[in-house]
Structure formats: structure tokens, C-alpha cells
Structures
1.
Amino acid sequence: MPGYTTRNLTLHIGGEEYRLRALSDRQQFIDREGAADRAGISSAQWSLFGQPWPAGCVLAEAMSSFDIAGKRILELGCGLALSSLVLQRRGADITASDYHPLASSFLEYNAALNGLPAIAFHDLPWATPDATLGHFDLIIGSDILYERGHAALLSALMLRHAHPAAELVIVDPGRGQSSRFVRAIRAQGYECSEERMRFDEAETKPFPGRLLYCRRPAAVTAS
């Protein structure tokens, strides 16, 4: 990546090896053409997409065995898109999405690095309706509830892009916004459950992180 220093990582997910090119640290910021301003990304947040986060690894592990048969799947805020790589290796119908200007190039490189076909990518700012994206049977994301307004943005996005009997899998490291999201999504007819999980070996119970699973039965939406 011109102008950036990167590192290569090897991660083991679901008993398989995945290689990732990531940014070498969290302090890199280059914006000669104003892409950060156009996307509304601050210099402090610019390099965060390019790191493998614990929540992303938890989601990827969940996707290594999740039922994907016949499902069109969308990953939100994909960053380095580890879960999308896992799903692509499993032969899923997966679309990765993010609004960071560098996400698509890292995705393309990392898919090739793992010997995978190119993964569909969609530039998706959450607040902007996009009629071209369509609807999905399974929508996933990791650490995407990190600001107060994200619960409302994401629940509105589900209204636009989730099929009537859709499933949602959201991994949250405990940033305090998941309850707002669950309340909003239950109002849309979803049934939700959660599994508390250790994201770091140093964590002790009760673990702050959780895997949220929500499903909207077809019978609810059809009535």
C-alpha cells in the first residue's frame, strides 16, 4: 500500500489458517486527496480499520461453523474483513461493506493472499440509504456499536436491507451500546439472545463482551 507500512499476520480460525495484511500500527494517516474529509473519518480513527480486533476474531470463529446454506450475507463495517474471508472460503454468498476508502483494496489483497476468489465489496455509509444493495438473509458485524448513535443507524439499516426472516449476528466487546440496539431491533419483531464471551485471556467473569444473535421469524413479519 503506497505510503503505508504494513505487516503480515497469520490467524487460525475454525481450524484453518488465514493470512492478513494489516497496517503496522494505529498511528498512520495519509490523506493527500482529502478522502478522510469526504468520508468523515478523523485522523485518530483513520488506521483503526486496518487492525485485527478481538471482536473480529470472535465473529470470524462464529462464522466458521454458522449455517450459511442458501443465505445471502452482508458484513457491516468489515475493516480487514476476516469474517468475509472465512465465509468466502466456505463458499458463502458474502458481500463485505465498509465506508473506509482503503477497505476495498485491503480486502482484494487479502482474498488473493489466501487464494480466494474476489469478494464482493460495497461502500456503505450507514446513514445513507442505498437502493442498489438489496436485501440479505444474514447480516453480521463486529465492534460496530462503538458510538451512541450507532444503535439507531444500524437498526434503521436493518429495516432497509434485512429480509423478513433475517438473522443478525453482532459481536460487541462491551462498549455499552448493545442494549439500545437490542431494544430497537426487538421493536422490529426480532427475537434476541446473547452469549457472554472472553475476548482477551486477561478477562474474568462476568465477561463484558457478547455475541448477539437475533432472528425475525417469518410468522411475525407476515402477520
2.
Amino acid sequence: MRRLTIIFAAFALAATPALASADGQMPQMDFANPLTGAQVVWMAIIMIVLYFLLSRWALPQLGSVIEDRQNRIKSDLDVARHAKAEAEHAVAELNLAIRNAREESQAAIAEAVGTAKARARAQSDRLNQRLDAELARAEAEIDATRKQAMAALAPVAREVASSLILRLAGKPADPERLDRALASAQG
């Protein structure tokens, strides 16, 4: 690439003297030549026509395209902002609905737990009452059976004590004294 640039520069330098006019000036700058004046006039006419074509026809069309593009971008941005606002509003509503549903479910769970605890407490109270009644009945039966057993043991104890006293002392026991001793031992 660098060699190619050097070759073109060398060719341009070599061709420059060939393009020069006889007096050493470039032909484009030779205003003594009648063609140069005509070229300058035509160049001015072409530039003026080109200016008017660009300023009256091409640039307004280009400007309207740019303006349409800016308006479309602006409207797209407005639509995007509106959609973003709606999305943020929808997210806020969704979060609120989730929070409300969570609170309602927690309240329902707490109510169900409270109801279950109350039901369990009531059932436990009923069972405790029934067990207390059965325990009281069993204690009464045990007490009655113990009294009955003690009452049944009294004649046997009297008989055994009387025979022991007779064997040990060699004489029969005093019935009143024996009754008092048995009563104090029972009671």
C-alpha cells in the first residue's frame, strides 16, 4: 500500500511539468485564454442552478424526511413511556394483590389454627372430665372395696388375736380391750 502511494506521488510530480502552460503556469489559471473565462461563467451558472435545485427541491424533501423521523421517534418514545407507566402500575397492582392474598391466607390459617386449638381444647376438657369422673368412680370403688375388706378382716383379726393371746398368755383375752385395740389399728 505504501509503495503504491509513493508510485502515484512520483507520477503526479512527473506529470505536473507536462500540464503546465508555456509560461510556466497551470492551464486552469491561465485567464488570458478565452476558454478559461467561459469555463468560469459556466461554472458559476452550474453552481447557481445546483444551489437553487438543492435549496428549493432536495433539501426541503430531506428536511421533511428528517422531521418525520424525529416525529416518529418522539411518538415512539411517548408510547414507550406510556407502556412503561402502565407496566409499573400493573406491577404495583400485582404486588398489592399478592400482599393482600398473603395477608388473607395468613388470617385464614390463623383462624383455622385457632378453631382447631379451640376444638382440641374442648375435646381435651371433655376427655379430662370423663377421666376425672372415671377416676373418682374407681377411687370410690377402691375405697368401698377397702372398707369391705377391712370389715371382713375385723372378725378374722379378732379370732387370730384372741387365739394368739390364749396361747401366749394361757388365758382368754378381754373382748372389750381386744375390740379397742383392733379399732385403733384400723383407724
3.
Amino acid sequence: MAPPNLFPFLLLLLLSLSVTAHDYQQALSKAILFFEGQRSGFLPQDQRMQWRANSGLGDGWTYNIDLTGGYYDAGDNVKFGFPMAFTTTMLSWSVIEFGDMMPPDEHRNALVAIRWATDYLLKTVSQPNRIFVQVGDPISDHNCWERPEDMDTRRTVYAVDAPNPASDVAGETAAALAASSMAFRSSDPAYSETLLRNAVKAFQLADNYRGAYSDNADVRDGVCPYYCDFDGYQDELLWGAAWLRRATQDDNFLNYIQSNGKTLGAEENINEFGWDNKHAGLNVLVSKEVLEGNVLSLDSYKTSAESFLCTLIPETSSSHIEYTPGGLIYRPGGSNLQHATSIAFLQLVYANYLSRTSQTINCGNIYVNAQTLRQLAKKQVDYILGDNPMGMSYMVGYGNKYPQRIHHRGSSLPSIKDHPQVIACKEGSIYFNSSNPNPNVLVGAIVGGPGEDDLYGDDRADFRKSEPTTYINAPFVGILAYFVANPNS
């Protein structure tokens, strides 16, 4: 028997051994591979997700325009422009901040994933004073359970023409194109220039005709209730301008952020970040120039960013974030892991800014440094990869135990290569209702995740928990890249 004074040490040792040492590089590879499973359009010969095939090849024909390509946002077969643009911004930001930490082959794969989206987004702003915001009628799509390769639902094209406003989608598209122009600057300067030129055009459309796209009668029934603008279009205008400032260093965009901050509500909803609300991300992005001492007039953005980050730290007097008993960031509503990945991403980005400038955050009763932010982000990452009460990885295909019955049409139906006959709209119901695991593994997909009690039932019908989305994965790419290079942070 060990001496009594060794028991505390042995207990700590056992606890440390119970936490898995994760293979962040494998997780990064899979997080990027996931996007190949979400592709729409004509698939290339080097397509690695072999159970997928061509789909949506007629998209845009009703407008006599090619709108093929892009991504299906989640487990359905609709191309929603608003979340697709946000996904693209976050993939690009991942590469901008953490690309040099990626293995070279995964850096290339990440750029391929971005380009699949940007090639499509360029098409959406290719006509003057018009933006295409969606392809696919969601009502008919959601009434079917069919493979994208078999789609026979209406591929309605939703467009907004000036002077009708689409500031939110156009502003986010401007952000996506500006951010991606930075991601491609060294590897493909000509493409980068094309992206930046179109980013400016998209921003002008957003700013000249202000308003929410979901207020337009012509598109409301298609975009709502799925991706309505619930939180206003003002944040996307500032977000688009901030990314254009970052990409161009043009003082006109700096002046825009300075002069429009209060009128566009830059100080509102500072604790939110996701496809609909950009405020926390905007504040972190803009804070870079303040921390570097370049633009002190933007100090209110830094104050808001740090106020938000302080709320995430349980030991601070301003803490009000909710965590599950197992330690996962939790926000009510569906698809909770979108909050965990996007917030952890912001923590890591801000930690980088603090490290480079040797600064800390004053959270009232304590000072918080870069290392604290990184440790908090790592807890979210490790929880998602398996260090949780269920002992389950919420990334499909990673670890020994992961979701088998995800809410995803292509994954849950037999592949067209194994079952070449058409599976019509309602014929897919037997697969949806089956208790069998999905036949096709959507490697790298991160599902909506467990509830506030840390429980996960692996139920295909429970889409709030079992459906993956592109905007859950996109920030996770950057996070994993950081921990590939710094596994012990």
C-alpha cells in the first residue's frame, strides 16, 4: 500500500491519465475534409469523399446564370447564401491567423475548401445591383429526404435587386471575399485581386441600399425561418468594412468604422458571434489595430471585445456565460456547438494579439493573459473531441465513439454508387426512420452537440443535436491548426 501522503499525488495522476491526448493534426485533416461532403455542383476528379457525386448542375437556369457550386449548409440540399458567406469568412480567418501553423498539405486543402465557396460567391455578385442570396426552395426540400444527387425539388433562385436591400448578405459576402483575398494573396495574387475587387462591389451594394434581406417579400418565404436576419443588418456593414480595412489598409474603411460605429450599434449585443450576429467577432477583429497602437480612436471596440472575453471566465466578477456540468459553453437553442467553436476561435485570436503586444486584459477583480484564454479554448476543443461525460467525440470519424446517426440526407441514404437507382422524395423516409447507423461516414462533421445536461442521444430526428453545419466546422479549422503547432498550450 502506498504511504498516505502519496494518495493526493496518485489521485491527480489518475485524473490526468483520464483525459485523452488528442491527435489534433488528424482532427484538422478531418475538419477540412468535411467540406467535400457538403459540395454542390460538378465534383472534381480529386474528390476524396467518394460516396458523393455531382448535384445541382442546373442551379441558376431560371435566371440564365450559372449558380452551380458552393456548399449545402447542413443536412439539407439548399444553398443558403448568408451562412455560406459567414462560413467562408471564418475559413479564411482561420487561414489568415493560423495557416502558418498548418501542415503544408492541410494548408492547401483549406484553400481548396475556401475556393469552392468563393468561386460560388463571385457568381452571386456578378450582375450589377443584384445579389443572389439562395438556391433551392426550403419548403419542398425539407419535405423530402433525398440525396443531393437525386434532387427533384424546386431549385428556386432567390435574388435581391437594388433598391431593395440585402445589407446583411451583401455585407457578409464582402467580408468573405475580403478575408479570402488575404488567404490567397501569396499563392494566387490574381485570384486574390479578383476577390478583393468584388468585395468592394458587394460592400457598396450593402451600404448603398441599407436593410435586411429577409424584409423583402420576394425572398422572405424562402429564407425564413431558416436564415432570417434576426439581429439586424448593421453588424454586417461594420464587419464588411472591418475586413476591407484589414485587407486593404485603406483609411476610407477605417473612417467608416469610426464614423458609423455608434449609429450602426457597434456597442450592442457584444456577447454574440455567429452567422447572424457579428458583434463579438467584429470587436476582436478591430481590436488588433488598437492593441498594436496604430488606431487608438477605435478603443471602444477593444473595450467591448475584452468585456465579452471577461464574461467567459468563471473567476471574474463579470462572468455570466453558461457552462454544462462537463464544461461546455452552452447557449439555448439548436446547434450549440456553433457557439463553442466560434467563441473558442475568438479566444485564440485575441490571445495571439495579446501575446504579440505583451498585454493582458483587466477583468475587474483579475487580470487575464493570453495563456488563460488559450486554456479555456483548449477545454472546448478537447470536450468536442471526446473529453466529456459521454466519452464521445462530436466529430464524426474521429475517435472510437462518435455520432452514427447524424441528421444528414447524403450520409443517411445509400450512396448513388452503391444504389444507382433514384430514391424519390418520400422513399428516403425509411432510411430517416431507421435505427441503423448512417451508411456513409461524413468524416469531420461536427454535430450540433449535447444538451445543457451533457447528454446526447445519437438520434437522427433530433436535428438540433445531430445535424452538422459548415459554420460549426469553419472556426474549428483555425482552432485545430493552433493546437497542431501548440498541443500543450
4.
Amino acid sequence: MVTTEAPASPSALRSAWPALLIFAVLALVPVVAPLLGAGSYALTIVSRIMIFAIAAVSLDLILGYGGLVSFGHAAFIGLGAYAVGILADAGVGEGLVLLPAAMLAAAVFALLTGAISLKTRGVHFIMITLAFGQMAYFTMTSLSAYGGDDGLTLWAKPLVAGFKWLNDRSAFHYVVLALLIAAWGLCRAVTRSRFGRVLRGCRENEERMRALGYDPFAYRLAAYVIAGAIAGLAGALLAIQADFISPAYMSWQRSGELIVMVVLGGIGSLHGAIIGAAAFLLTEELLSGVTEHWRLIFGPLLILVVLFLRGGLGGLLGKIRHD
């Protein structure tokens, strides 16, 4: 069971300031963007950033704190998206049903595949998560009833308690922001709890944790399921925003992009995962307008960040405040 630490101390509040600053800036976007003449476009881009930030935060939970390099994390995003699409196709249009269903579908998949994957370590774990991710990908491409390779279209936005709030870009922006804060808060609570300390201990010295009476497999599996459920939520939101679900959501390339986001923001830094997602997607948006081979430019930039910013962009933000 996850037990959080005692009431927030001044040091805990200080460590949370980068995330609080990020959330404050994101909250101002719907107000400031129209003044700059970039209303709907800015809201679309920023909402997409927040959605992928939710997925990146979930990956950082198992990568940064558990040392689990998953190359199949995008499968959870795709399953969350398809859960929404399949239920919507069956006539379920209530968001308060669709979002939990997406999280449940991804959590069940994480539980089943994690129980097998976590029996392995290192490169073997990377390869088996990649294999499960590709299995999910090819399964969805073969389901012709739900579009196959062509994907699945959502013909209407889900309702929220019977209201069409998600049809409004600003309302959707704040819904996604609220869920991002909730995902960050949950992962922060997990990592700062005894559960999180045991998870980090298993990453550092598994044998010592066993000697202390802890079962590393159980803790890792629990973290893996939590991360899968949060990524499933991101997939559901991605489907709602785009009104479309594609098998490409769960491709291995998408999993690789999520790892890049975490590395770019700083591994083991939850607010860094948010910054990494923003940096990756904004760079993609800018460079793709210059050349379709934008990754050739982005690659060296990522290498420079890894070499000279050991804590990633998230660590750089902390250094700026300290200075």
C-alpha cells in the first residue's frame, strides 16, 4: 500500500516549485493566446503537449525511479485511445465512463504483460516490452471492424456529466491541465512515499532490498500498472482531442519518443518529464516547418543536452533558481 509522507515540509514545497510554475503558465495560455492572435492554434498545441506530458510523467515513474526502460509504453496510450473509440462506437458517450475505462484497459494490459516482462532485466526487459508493444500494435491493425490500418474516427466529443464541455477548446484545455496536475500529484505522492523509497532501493540494490524483506517484483509490478493506467488516460485524451484513433499511437517509434522526452527533461524528475514533452513537441513543430528531416537536427541537440546538462532541462530550471 502507498503511504504518503507527513504534511508538506518547506523543503517539499521548494522542490515542487518548478511544477507549480509550469502549471501556472499553462493555466494562463487560454487567456494570453488570444491576445497574441494564436488562440485556437496555441490551445491545440499546448493541449497536445499536456497530453504527452501525462504519458511522459507515467514513464518517468518506472524509468526514473524504478530503472525500468520500457520500449512498449506507447501500447498503453494506444489501448487507452482504442478503449474510448470502441466504447464510443458502441454508443457510450459519457466521458466519466470512457476515461476510467481507458485507464482500466491499460492497467489490465500492464498487469498481464508486466507479470511476464518483470521476470527479466536489462536488455531482455527492453526487448520483451518492445515485443508486447508490437503485438498490441499489429493486433489493432488487424481489427478491420475498428478501422485497421486506417484508424477509427470519433464522430462526437464525449459528454461530461451530460454537458458538452469538451467541445470548447478552452474547457478541454483546463480538463487536460487538471488531469496533468492529478497525474503529477499521484506520481509525486508515490515517489515520496515508503513505496517510492523501496522502488528506488530496488533499482539501486535489489539483493539488499530482498534481505530487508521486500519483494522487488511486487513493487515494480505495482508501479508498472500505475504507469500503464496513467498512460492509458493520456491515450484517451489524445483520442478525444484528435477525434481519431490510429494504431500508430502504439508504435515503437512513439515509445522511443516518450523515452526521449524523459531524457530531455531529466530522468527521475517528474516536472522534467513535462518540460521534456514540451521541448520535444515544440521543437518538432518548429523544425518540421523547415525540413521533413527535422530529426537530423534534433538528434545533435539531444546529444548536447545529455552531455552538458546531466539533470536535463528540468535540472537546468532548478539551477537557474538556485543561482
